[in-house]
Design goal:
The chain is an alpha/beta fold. The protein has one domain: 2,3-Dihydroxybiphenyl 1,2-Dioxygenase, domain 1. Helix content is about 15%, strand content about 35%. The protein contains two helices and eight strands. The strands form two sheets. It has a four-stranded mixed sheet, with helices on one face. This is VOC domain-containing protein. InterPro entries: GLOD4, GLOD4_dom, Glyas_Bleomycin-R_OHBP_Dase, VOC_core.
Length: about 140
């Protein structure tokens, strides 16, 4: 049996409201913008979904993509809503600080199985563990 160590590099989320979504990731979760790219037409590999229009992607996270998990926010211009399926259940983050920021901003926080749950615009869930957020070493 071959065992390989690895990590998820990133998840791709399609977002309809780029400004509100950025505010959530930056102001509530405390992530930073790592890079942003604009594209004038659809991706041949359907990176932006089944759309043949102008789009962008913004990589956000807590540290560099080379050694941190990040989220790719894909924004298609002139697409105002996405239907979310049931395949993605959520991401768990250890961050007492994110819980405090959400409550201070009056962002909806609900309790579920002992975790604080917040939702990004568009419905992606984040399960927050009430422990200090790890720092880079």
């Amino acid at each position: 049996m071959v065992v390989k160590n690895g990590r998820a590099l990133h998840f791709v989320f399609k977002v309809a409201d780029r400004a509100a979504t950025a505010k959530f990731y930056f102001s509530i979760l405390g992530m930073k913008a790592l890079r942003h790219e604009e594209f004038q037409e659809g991706c041949d590999a359907a990176c932006n979904g089944p759309y043949d229009n102008r789009w962008s992607k913004t990589m956000v996270g807590y540290g560099p993509e080379d050694n941190h998990f990040v989220v790719e926010l894909t924004y298609n211009y002139n697409v105002h809503q996405y239907e979310q399926g049931n395949d993605f259940q959520g991401i768990t983050i250890r961050s007492r600080e994110a819980i405090a920021r959400a409550k201070a901003a009056n962002w909806p926080v609900r309790e579920e199985n002992g975790l604080s749950v917040v939702e990004a615009p568009g419905g992606y869930k984040y399960y927050l563990i009430d422990e200090p957020q790890p720092t880079d070493k």
